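Action item from last meeting closed. Structure (825 res):
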C-alpha cells in the first residue's frame, strides 16, 4: 500500500506542476521508469512494477479530471439580490454573524461557487433569526470578489480554495424556504448543542468547548488563538486526529475494562466468537462516526475519522503494528476523494506529524528489542520512561512539522513538547470526555444547561490558565524567518540521518557529534542566513489592501516601517508582521506614521505589541478615533518625535529628509476635515546610492502646491503615489516637479473608492513614469546597492516575479527551477 500511495501522490504532483516544469517532469519520469525496469527486468516483481506505473498515470489523469476552477462572476457595483441555501452554522465572529450559501443566484442569474455573507450582530437580523442552516434565503447585499493579498513570505489565504466566489454584507435578509436534508438537520443540532454549552459555561470556556465538540470556532478570541499558537497547541482548537485518537483510546479502553468485568463463563463463551478488542472496536467506531457528524464533517474531521477508522480496522484484523500501511491507506482514500487536499496545509501537517511520530516510535521499539538488557524495573523507572517517551513523541511531531510551521506561521514554539505533554492529555483525557458526556446528556434529555457545569468550568479554566502561563514564558515561542526550499530539503535530510544514526547504533556509545553534526550545521545555516542578505538599501511597498504600508531596509541594517494598513482586518497581524518575520526582522528602528487615518495606523498596534520599536516619527496631529494608537505609545513607553520640514537624519550611506508638513502650513480650499488631515501627512525623502524614494502619505493638492517650490529637493526616482492614486492628488505640476521614473500605487483590489483613478494613472504615464500597483502586481520591492551589481537599480521585483510561470519557452522552466529551489516561500 505504501508504494501505491507514493505513486498516486507522485501522479498528483506531476499533474499539478506539469504547466511549470514539463521537461523536468518528463525527464524525471523516464529516468525513474527506465531505472526500475533495469533493476527488476528479470524479477518476479515486474508485474507489480507495471501496476505501480499504472497508478502513477491514473494519479495524473484523475487529478487533471478533478481540477476545479471557479470562474469569477460578474459582480455589479450596486446592491444586488442574492438567493441561496445556507450550508453551515451561522456563527458570531468579530461582532458579525457569518454564514455561507450555496446554489447561488445573483440578480436572478445562477452562478457557480458559493457566497459568504456577513450580518451585523445587533439589529433586526442575528444568528438566531436563522435556524442554523437548512433555509433558502434572499438577501440584499453588495458583493465583491474575495481579497487575496500577495506579499513575499506571507501565507496568502484564498477563500476560492473553499469554493467561495464572492463575499458581502447583507443589509436585509428574508427566509424564503426550508431545506430538508441530513446536513441541514445536523447543523440545527450543532447550533442547539452550542446554545447548551453557552448557557452552561463562561464565554471563554464555552468558546473552547464549542470548538472541540460541535466544531463551532467563531467564538475563539484572537488572544486565545495567539496563546494556543505560541505554545504549539493550535491543533486543539480544531477537531483533529488528537481529539479522535484520544477519545477513541478512552472509549476503547473503557469497553475492554467493562468486558473483562463480565462473569468468567460469559466472557469465555464470548471469546469463542470474538475477542474483547474486536468488541471494543465495534463499540468505538459508531461513537467516532457520530462525533464526526455532529462536528460538521469538515475536511480535517473526515481525514481524522478515516485515519482512526483504518487503524481500528487493522486492530480488528490483528494488524495493529502496520501503522505505515494504515497511514498510507488513509492518505490514498482522502486524496481519492479530493486530490487537491495534497496541497492543503492541514493535510500536510497532520500526515507529517503522524509520520514522524510513527517513525520515531518504530525506531524506539527496534532499539529496545536490540538492547534487551534495558528492562523496566521499578514504578519510578516505568513513569520516567513513559514521560521520556511522551516528550520524544511530541518533539518528533514538532521537529517534523517545523519547516511548514515556519513557512506558514513564522514561529517555532520551543515550549511545545512540554505544553503538549501536559495540556493535550488534560484536554483530551479529561475536559473533552467530560464535556462530551455532559453536553450530550443535556442535549438528549432536552436540558437547557449541562450537568457538572461547575466542575467543567473549573477544569476548563485551569486548562486555559496553564496555556496562558506557558505562552508568557520568555522565549516560549520564537518568531523565525522563511526557509528556502533548498533549506527545507537539507533540514529533512539531516533530521532523518540523525534519527537513523541514533537508533541504529549498537554496543558502546559512539560519539554523538557525528550524528548531530549535519543537523547542527543545517540549523546554523538557517539561523545565520538573514545576515547574508547584504547591506543594500531596500524599499518594499506591501500589499495591504486599501491602505498603506512600506518597509525600508537601510544600508546600516536598520529597519524603518512607514504606516501599517488597516486595523480591521488587522494588516499588522495578517501581513506586516509575517512579512517582517519572514525576512528575519525582529526590531523596528524607526516606525513612521504619516498621518493618523485608520488605514495607516491600524496595523501598527499589533506591531508595537510584538516588535521592539526604537522610536516613532509623527506629523504631530491627532485625529478622532486614533486615541488607541497614541495610548499604545504611552503604554509601551516608546520615544517619539514630531517631524517638520527641514529635519534631516544623515548617515554614512543614506539621508532621510522631512519635507512636509511645516508649522505655517494651511491647506487650500478644504473639502472637509478629512482633506485637511490628509494634506498634513508626513512626507519623507530617502536618498541612498544611486536612487531616492519619496513617501507621500495621503497628501492632496493643497500640500502638493506647498511642496513644488522645493524644486530639486523634491525630485525623486521613485514615488509612493499620494492617497492611493485618488483624483484629488498627483497634480500634473506636482508630478513634473518630482519627475519620478517609477510610481507605486498602494490600493485594494476592486476597492469602493475606485482607486487609483483613471485620470491619475494617465498623468503618471504621460509623465513617462512606470506605474506599479499593489492590487495588480502584489508587493513591489526595490534593492538599491552601491556595488553596481544591477545595471539599473530601478528595476523592481514584484510578487509575481517569484511565482511559477506557465512555460511557453525553455527559459521559463529555467526561471521556475531557480524559483523552486532558491526562493523564499
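Sequence:
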Amino acid at each position: 500500500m505504501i508504494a501505491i500511495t507514493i505513486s498516486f501522490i507522485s501522479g498528483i504532483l506531476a499533474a499539478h506542476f506539469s504547466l511549470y516544469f514539463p521537461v523536468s517532469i518528463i525527464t524525471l519520469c523516464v529516468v525513474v521508469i527506465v531505472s526500475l525496469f533495469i533493476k527488476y527486468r528479470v524479477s518476479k516483481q515486474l508485474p507489480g512494477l507495471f501496476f505501480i506505473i499504472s497508478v502513477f498515470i491514473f494519479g495524473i489523469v484523475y487529478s487533471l479530471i478533478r481540477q476545479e476552477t471557479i470562474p469569477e462572476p460578474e459582480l455589479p457595483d450596486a446592491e444586488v439580490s442574492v438567493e441561496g441555501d445556507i450550508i453551515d452554522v451561522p456563527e458570531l465572529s468579530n461582532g458579525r454573524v457569518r454564514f455561507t450559501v450555496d446554489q447561488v443566484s445573483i440578480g436572478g442569474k445562477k452562478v457557480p461557487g458559493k457566497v459568504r455573507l456577513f450580518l451585523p450582530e445587533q439589529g433586526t437580523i442575528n444568528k438566531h433569526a436563522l435556524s442554523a442552516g437548512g433555509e433558502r434565503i434572499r438577501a440584499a447585499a453588495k458583493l465583491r470578489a474575495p481579497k487575496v493579498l500577495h506579499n513575499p513570505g506571507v501565507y496568502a489565504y484564498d477563500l476560492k480554495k473553499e469554493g467561495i466566489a464572492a463575499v458581502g454584507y447583507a443589509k436585509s435578509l428574508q427566509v424564503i424556504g426550508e431545506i430538508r436534508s441530513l446536513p441541514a438537520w445536523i447543523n440545527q443540532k450543532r447550533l442547539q448543542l452550542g446554545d447548551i454549552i453557552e448557557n452552561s459555561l463562561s464565554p471563554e470556556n464555552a468558546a473552547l468547548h464549542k470548538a472541540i465538540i460541535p466544531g463551532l470556532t467563531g467564538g475563539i478570541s484572537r488572544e486565545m488563538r495567539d496563546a494556543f499558537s505560541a505554545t504549539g497547541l493550535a491543533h486543539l482548537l480544531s477537531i483533529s486526529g488528537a481529539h479522535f485518537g484520544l477519545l477513541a483510546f478512552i472509549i476503547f479502553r473503557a469497553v475492554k475494562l467493562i468486558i473483562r468485568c463480565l462473569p468468567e463463563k460469559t466472557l469465555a463463551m464470548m471469546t469463542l466468537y470474538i475477542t474483547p478488542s474486536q468488541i471494543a472496536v465495534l463499540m468505538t467506531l459508531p461513537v467516532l462516526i457520530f462525533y464526526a457528524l455532529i462536528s460538521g464533517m469538515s475536511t480535517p474531521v473526515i481525514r481524522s475519522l478515516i485515519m482512526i477508522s483504518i487503524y481500528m480496522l487493522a486492530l480488528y484484523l490483528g494488524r495493529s503494528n502496520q501503522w505505515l500501511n494504515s497511514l498510507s491507506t488513509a492518505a490514498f482514500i482522502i486524496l481519492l476523494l479530493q486530490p487537491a487536499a495534497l496541497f492543503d496545509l492541514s493535510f500536510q501537517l497532520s500526515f507529517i506529524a503522524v509520520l514522524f511520530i510513527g517513525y520515531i516510535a518504530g525506531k524506539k521499539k527496534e532499539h529496545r528489542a536490540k538492547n534487551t538488557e534495558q528492562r523496566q524495573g521499578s514504578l519510578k523507572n516505568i513513569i520516567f520512561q513513559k514521560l521520556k517517551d511522551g516528550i520524544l513523541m511530541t518533539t518528533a511531531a514538532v521537529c517534523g512539522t517545523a519547516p511548514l510551521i515556519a513557512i506558514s506561521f513564522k514561529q517555532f514554539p520551543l515550549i511545545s513538547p512540554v505544553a503538549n505533554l501536559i495540556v493535550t492529555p488534560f484536554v483530551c483525557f479529561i475536559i473533552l470526555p467530560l464535556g462530551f458526556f455532559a453536553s450530550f446528556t443535556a442535549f438528549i434529555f432536552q436540558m437547557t444547561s449541562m450537568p457538572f457545569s461547575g466542575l467543567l468550568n473549573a477544569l476548563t479554566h485551569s486548562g486555559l490558565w496553564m496555556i496562558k502561563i506557558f505562552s508568557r514564558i520568555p522565549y516560549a515561542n520564537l518568531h523565525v524567518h522563511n526557509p528556502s526550499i533548498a533549506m527545507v530539503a537539507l533540514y529533512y535530510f539531516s533530521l532523518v540521518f540523525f534519527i537513523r544514526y541514533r537508533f541504529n547504533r549498537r554496543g558502546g556509545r559512539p560519539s554523538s557529534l557525528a550524528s548531530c553534526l549535519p543537523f547542527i550545521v543545517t540549523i546554523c545555516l538557517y539561523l545565520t542566513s538573514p545576515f547574508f542578505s547584504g547591506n543594500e538599501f531596500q524599499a518594499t511597498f506591501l500589499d495591504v489592501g486599501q491602505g498603506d504600508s512600506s518597509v525600508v531596509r537601510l544600508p546600516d541594517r536598520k529597519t524603518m516601517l512607514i504606516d501599517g494598513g488597516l486595523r480591521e482586518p488587522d494588516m499588522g497581524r495578517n501581513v506586516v508582521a509575517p512579512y517582517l518575520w519572514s525576512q528575519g526582522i525582529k526590531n523596528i528602528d524607526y516606525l513612521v506614521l504619516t498621518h493618523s487615518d485608520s488605514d495607516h495606523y491600524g496595523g501598527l498596534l499589533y506591531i508595537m505589541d510584538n516588535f521592539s520599536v526604537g522610536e516613532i516619527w509623527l506629523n504631530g496631529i491627532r485625529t478622532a478615533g486614533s486615541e488607541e494608537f497614541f495610548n499604545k505609545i504611552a503604554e509601551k513607553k516608546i520615544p517619539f518625535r514630531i517631524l517638520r520640514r527641514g529635519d534631516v537624519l544623515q548617515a554614512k550611506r543614506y539621508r532621510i529628509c522631512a519635507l512636509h508638513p511645516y508649522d505655517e502650513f494651511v491647506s487650500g480650499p478644504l473639502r472637509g476635515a478629512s482633506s485637511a488631515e490628509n494634506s498634513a501627512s508626513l512626507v519623507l525623502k530617502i536618498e541612498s546610492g544611486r536612487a531616492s524614494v519619496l513617501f507621500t502619505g495621503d497628501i492632496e493638492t493643497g500640500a502638493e502646491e506647498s511642496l513644488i517650490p522645493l524644486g530639486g529637493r523634491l525630485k525623486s526616482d521613485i514615488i509612493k503615489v499620494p492617497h492611493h492614486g485618488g483624483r484629488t492628488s498627483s497634480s500634473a505640476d506636482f508630478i513634473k516637479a518630482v519627475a519620478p521614473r517609477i510610481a507605486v500605487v498602494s490600493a485594494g483590489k476592486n476597492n469602493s473608492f475606485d482607486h487609483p483613478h483613471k485620470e491619475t494613472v494617465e498623468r503618471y504615464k504621460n509623465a513617462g513614469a512606470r506605474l506599479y500597483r499593489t492590487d495588480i502586481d502584489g508587493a513591489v520591492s526595490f534593492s538599491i546597492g552601491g556595488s553596481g551589481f544591477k545595471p539599473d537599480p530601478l528595476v523592481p521585483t514584484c510578487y509575481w516575479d517569484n511565482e511559477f510561470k506557465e512555460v511557453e519557452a525553455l527559459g521559463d522552466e529555467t526561471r521556475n527551477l531557480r524559483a523552486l529551489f532558491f526562493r523564499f516561500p
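Note appended to the action item: Confidence is low (pLDDT under 50) at residues 123-128, 507-511, 786-790.
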